[in-house]
Amino acid sequence: MGTENDLDVEGQTEPPIRGLNKSACQSNFSTPSPTLAGTSGATTDGDEEGRGSTTSTPTLLTPESAHTLTVPDVCSLLDTDPQNGIDDAEAARRLEQHGPNKVEGAKGLSLWTILLRQVSNSLTLVLVITMVLSFAIDDMIEGGVIAAVILLNIVVGFIQDYRAEQTIQALYALSAPTCKVIRSGKTDNIKAADLVPGDLVRLGVGDVVPADLRLVNSINLSTDEALLTGESLPVSKHAERVLKDRDVPLGDRTNMVYSASTVTRGRATGVVTATGMTTEVGKIAELLRQGSGPAVDPDSSFIVRAWTRVRNLMRVLLGLNGTPLQVSLSKFALLLFGLAILLAIIVFSVNKFDIDSEVLIYGICVAVAVIPESLIAVLTISTALGTRAMAKGNVVIRNLASLEAVGGVTNVCSDKTGTLTQGKMVAKRVWLADGTEVSIQNTTHPFDPTGGNVTVGGKEFTRSESKDEKVTPSLNDFLETVALCNNSTITNVDNTYTAIGEPTEIALQVFAMRFGFGKPSLTASGNNQLLAEYPFDSSCKRMTVVCTDESGGASAYTKGALEAILPLMNIPDSQKVEIVTKAEALASEGLRVLCIAKKAVNPKDFAASDAEKITPASTDALPPRPTVESNLVFLGLAGLYDPPRLESAAAVAKCQTAGITVHMLTGDHVATATAIAYEIGILKGDKNAPSAKNNSQIMLASAFDALSEAEIDALPALPLVLARCSPTTKVRMVEAMHRRKAFCVMTGDGVNDSPALKISDVGIAMGLNGSDVAKEAADMVLTDDNFASIVTAVQEGRRLFDNIQKFLLHLLISNIAQVILLLIGLSFKDEFGVSVFPLSPLEILWANLVTSSFLALGLGLEEAQPDVMQRPPHSLATGIFTKELIIDKFVYGTAMGALCLASFSSVAYSGLSGSDGLGYKCNEDYSDVCGTAFKARATTFATLTFLLLVTAWEAKHFTRSLFNMHPEKYTGFTSVFKTIWSNTFLWWAVSAGFIICFPVIYLPTVNRVVFKHEAITWEWGIVAACVVVYICIVEAWKAGKRKRGMGSGVIVGVKEGEA
Predict the structure, then answer these.
(1) In this structure, are residues 51 and 67 in contact, taking their beta carbons and an 8 Å threshold?
(2) In Gene Ontology terms, what is a biological process of this protein (predicted)?
(3) Per-residue pLDDT, 725
(4) What φ, ψ does residue 1032 adopt, rounded to 5°?
């Protein structure tokens, strides 16, 4: 049974009614082909829609110019016979010359690459250096602990990234495995990899095009090029056409078919013009194989080339390539490393560079104290846990760092078809001959005839109403026609609707079923039996079926493009003008318009038909098509479109509230894209207003590509809607955003989206309908192809960014306190003038790696703030280290360090701990003269531990008091307990840190031999006093910030006084 091509049917009712701009886009990829060398400047005298003769015949051919030449010229230049092809010997020679027809995979992430990613940051390298120094001075415990931290980070990150790679898999070759080729006049099945330029290939329905072909002949051919061009519907192809412009976009080259596209209808023969990496798919795959970083100029000197390679390698190893957070933390680690060296030099200088083993150990301890050893592990684990949460939100994270990065996005560039929309056609508006309008709204599923709201003539229609009473004669005829002149099938299994057929036919069949006029119900009683079918043909752009009716007669039912049916109707010119005007109005809304008509015929004229579709062999036995399709009666117009997902409008609004600009970059027509953009809120205002006609926020890709970079940068704002996009257009859009210092997310599903996905800050591919090339280039993959899932990812990214600031604050407070304590602690001398450690090396590591790590991890699991999607994106220039965080860490760190000094001094010089003074050689082992030093050290350790525990709860919010942190949730005196219990992991981390402090201090051998401290008694009073004073300092500082309006963290809708 014949099927119609919806793109052809609606071809002249989409924007072409108002004039479709077919000016050329910039050539997407115009690198010379190694397969077919040379250039062509051929043009044609013929029309774009017809066949023309070339004004000059080139001597060489490139794949980029094949669509501008006639078939004889192409075959002549390729030295092939358009009927018989080339012979096997010539094919073998060309295969040896040009290589196999394979698309080489992109540089996928190997195990070594994934492993390198885990260690390619400055913080890890600093930890490695610290570990080496620890082992060098025979401090095996400290070196072993740091080694364990490094190993934990590598293992967790490696497992997460490896699992993501297994989920996404690698780039597959997109070529068809086998194909039908004509060689020496004989048709044979060969491997697609063995195709060569000049081969003749035969195509049929369902075939995957194995290479780029110039069509030699075609019959009713359509191909699905969505993965390559972004066009949402099949494209009709015509071998006889010769295009004038070499730079016509791929989607408009109707005499070419491209590798990896699929034949949806008809059959054809084509000559191979490009194979392997010279095909359009291959050129895109080649972009993905290119490495990151500045390219090495092959014409530069050896020294310049070597320096460029070394610089690129060092940037990778130091983590200076990546997301803003990765770069910030890597630079911060380098700063800390420099500071650690400076502090060690200070320690050595105080000792007049008389460096013995104790001075060396003390210097290393001070250096270690400034480095947050657990930061990289906590960051990795927190992000890995975030990926688990995102998996539940239908987002697969391929790169851990991208989860945090997406939280800082300022612009989202999204595809339309299947992401913002449902990716299926739906009948939205119908205009009947009697002027009645039928509309469908709120469609939940495009195949479900029971979903959505149906309005007929302004009144709501329900399926429970009798169709005989509620369906007017004009609507009855319209429904019968769209149901019978239709080859699609809708099935319902367990309330799940599925469909088979062309998108437009499915949409019309579902529309008829809404009123109980589905094709099965119309033919069930034996009526409306098919007598003949005149299938859709691209030359006439219409389809007609002849069926019996209940009265014993028969009718011809026709649907097709308006310009194809309008001349066949026997109606006055005034009515034709009215019909055209209405069609233009529907097309201006982005709808694809079909014209529906019928006429009564004599069933006896079709008695010879065996219910078969009309073929050239059977036309003599039946009335000719022009006779059957003459004097038609107009029934109405049907407006179809791909409806937005129900959640798209809310998701777009949420992005805009969060200060994120949403752009639509689509391969679809401008009217369709504009209508959807208005419907989901990307564009604001009245789309019918005069100002909307010349809206600068809407632009054709051809116009955008024609602008220079300077002209694009001079635009007040980048367009919100770009229609008829090519891969180059999307890449230029991303580059323009980067020049404006924007941080952008790019979504895509097709091969054509891959270059833009790769260069965007965060690339997001579609998991259901996306190509493997797109998934390979992306940082994230949406398993449900839903734009709303992007918003979920942004929200999770912002939550993670906030939490990173919280645990970063906590870790740095600890480091600053320890540096202050250890530097000033140089003044604590024993009887021989040797500095006594206020904290032993293992106490420092214990505080940094055991106590702080779990507290920081708990802060990383904090819930999102209520206003996380109600505030603008964080500043990319400032990054993670905001002014508030820097000031807070020094205020709290100084307070903590001072209190630790106070606790050590109170015990060491109070005379209440037994022996006077700090003894001697108390940094190495315990002796009777070391009691005071060991008790002072234990008191300082307990003070530092308890202050870190309190800081974990205070860091939950930078501005609000711990005792009134969530006034929108909890009130009263008990609110503090509800606040600290709201994060159960942090609660247990604090509890464990509190409990484990006592065995560390009191267990024999563990305290004296391992930690170099002694059990304490009355000293706990000093610890308690320090904790109270610290809480007062923190709360006073927060109160001052609230009073002066300093810092962030004020929840939208909550008054300052309440915070």
Answers:
(1) no
(2) export from cell
(3) 83
(4) -65, -40
**Residue carrying the six token digits 């709501």:** 460
CB 234 within 8 A of CB 228: no
The whole-angstrom distance between residue 975's C-alpha and the CA centroid of its chain comes to 40
The interaxial angle of helices 787-824 and 375-392, nearest 10 deg, is: 160
Identify the CA nearest to 479 among candidates 638, 246, 608.
Answer: 638
d(CA 466, CA 451): 18
Is the Cα torsion angle 318, 320, 322, 327 positive or negative in sign? Answer: positive
Give the Cα separation of 577 and 1024 in Å (integer): 90
Alpha-carbon span 83 to 184, nearest angstrom: 9
CB-based contacts of 824, cutoff 8 Å, min separation 6: 897, 901
528 near 562, Cβ under 8 Å? no
CA dist., res. 893 & res. 369, Å (int): 13
Between CA 100 and CA 106 the distance in angstroms is 17
Give the closest residue to 467 by CA, choosing from 521, 516, 510: 516
- Token pair in block for residue 478: 């319209």
Cα separation, 121 vs 109, in Å, equals: 18
Distances in Å between the Cα of 257 and the Cα atoms of 187, 234, 246, 271 are 20, 12, 15, 10
Query: With b meaning 16 or more CB within 10 Å and e meaning fewer, what string describes 879-915?
Result: bbbbebbeebbebbbebbbbbbbbbbbbbbeeeebee
> Using an 8 Å Cβ cutoff, are 1001 and 1023 in contact?
no
Contact 889, 816 (CB under 8 A): yes
- Which pLDDT value is given to residue 250? 81
Q: From CA 499, how far away is CA 858, in angstroms rounded?
A: 49
Dist CA 537 CA 539 (whole Å): 5
The candidate with the shortest Cα–Cα distance to 220, out of 54, 8, 376, 78, is 8
Instruction: Say what the pTM is.
Output: 0.67
Spatial distance between the Cα atoms of 642 and 676, rounded to a whole number of angstroms: 9
Instruction: Judge whether 631 and 568 are in contact, CB under 8 Å.
Output: yes
Residue 441 CB partners (closer than 8 Å, separation 6+): 452, 453, 455
Write out 151-174 in H/E/C secondary structure.
HHHHHHHHHHHHHHHHHHCCCCCC
Query: Would the CA dihedral through 864, 865, 871, 873 be positive or negative?
Result: negative
pLDDT at 299: 63
Structural tokens at position 970: 């909890």
What parts of the chain have a pLDDT lower than 50?
Answer: 1-59, 106-108, 167-176, 291-293, 465-466, 608-619, 1050-1059
How far apart (Å, rounded) are the C-alpha atoms in residues 525 and 3? 24
Helical segments of 446-572, H only:
467-470, 473-484, 503-514, 519-523, 562-565
* 869: region left, alpha or beta (phi > 0 left; psi from -120 to 50 alpha): alpha
Identify the DSSP state of 410: S
DSSP class of 577:
H
Residue 208 DSSP class: B
Q: Which of the residues are catalytic?
A: 415
Look at the chain and count its residues.
Answer: 1059
Residue that has been written with the tokens 């870790």 in this structure:
811
Q: Give ∠ CA 256-260-264 in degrees, rounded to 5.
A: 70
Residue 865, Cβ neighbours under 10 Å: how many?
19
At residue 342, the pLDDT reads 86
User: Helix (H, G, I), strand (E, B), or coil: what is residue 712?
Assistant: helix
Strands 186-191 and 262-274: unpaired
Residue 473's nearest CA partner among 521, 418, 436 is 436
pLDDT at 909: 84
Strands 426-432 and 437-441: antiparallel
Sign, Cα dihedral of 516, 519, 525, 528: positive
What letters, b where the CB count within 10 A reaches 16 and e where it falls short, cover 325-351? bbbbbbbbbbebbeebeebbeebbeeb
| C-alpha–C-alpha distance, residues 262 and 209, integer Å | 6
The span from the CA of 517 to the CA of 513, in Å, is 5
